[in-house]
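2024-03-11 09:14:02 INFO worker-7 job=invfold-0412 stage=load source=structure_tokens
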């Protein structure tokens, strides 16, 4: 089983999403976290199952809530770089697709017109 690690930005996004759902209805944030945990487990068991968004960046959809995890595979780790609403801000999603450079710095993937 692969280890799943949340990047700082992704961890902040999970916390923000949790608070928003809790403000809508008590307990809904906990339901979101359970769905998020199930997605993390799927990634730990099947890290290559996500859809490619870039050369290395993949996405995985939560089952119940409209959020997508962006992640990269590194050695035996799944690094979640972003948690984004799947129905909003397609440009923001493309800006958050990150590729690992030789130096190890995470940089946005360059835009390539088709």
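2024-03-11 09:14:09 INFO worker-7 stage=emit residues=114
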């Amino acid at each position: 089983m692969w280890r799943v690690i949340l990047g700082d930005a992704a961890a902040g996004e999970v916390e923000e999403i949790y608070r928003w759902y809790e403000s809508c209805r008590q307990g809904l944030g906990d339901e979101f976290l359970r769905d998020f945990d199930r997605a993390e487990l799927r990634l730990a068991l099947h890290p290559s199952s996500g859809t490619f968004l870039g050369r290395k960046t993949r996405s995985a959809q939560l089952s119940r809530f409209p959020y997508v995890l962006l992640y990269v595979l590194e050695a035996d780790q799944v690094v979640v770089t972003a948690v984004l609403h799947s129905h909003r801000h397609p440009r923001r999603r493309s800006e958050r697709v990150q590729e690992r450079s030789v130096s190890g710095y995470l940089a946005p993937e360059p835009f390539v017109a088709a």
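2024-03-11 09:14:09 INFO worker-7 stage=report msg="The helical segments are 8-24, 28-45, 90-96."
2024-03-11 09:14:10 INFO worker-7 job finished
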